[in-house]
Amino acid sequence: xxxxxxxxxxxxxxxxxxxPAVVRLDAQATxxxxxxxxxxxxxxxxxxxxxxxxxxxxEAGGKIGGFIVGETRVWEFGSPxxxxxxxxxxxxxxxxxxxxSRLMAAICDRFRACGxxxxxxxxxxxxxxNLAFFRxxxxxxxxxxxxxxxx
Length: 151
Fold this sequence. Notes:
With 151 residues, this protein is of the alpha+beta class. The chain has helices at 19-30, 35-47, 99-113, 128-136; strands at residues 10-13, 53-60, 63-73, 82-90, 119-121. The protein has four helices and five strands, in the order E-H-H-E-E-E-H-E-H. A five-stranded mixed β-sheet has the order 1-2-3-4-5. Strand 2 (53-60) and strand 3 (63-73) form a beta hairpin.
């Protein structure tokens, strides 16, 4: 089913003032309050910023209703330049209204402007919500396999 675009949403670049709302939204979705993590992301993506790093906010009804974070990476693990999405979140009451799709389209536009033609992400096999979202955006399994080892 295609998302319904029946909610008025404004997309914009994130600011430092958005971080408390991002922490709250992330904690609602993950059950973890990661204020230090999001402060670090703020430092690297908002305060220091670079042309290839993107942190976008979706506002709906006067509140932050979602966000997406990603960057272009060059030759990581032998991969040609590509865009990477490493965080996306939409408030539960705004899901299935096209907010995530609009965030994804906006970050993909920025990736294209950086000269890349592929977008990637990595998610847990058990994260059915994000797996369904990324598949709905046309993403499929890529040519790389994640490997890990317990320490």
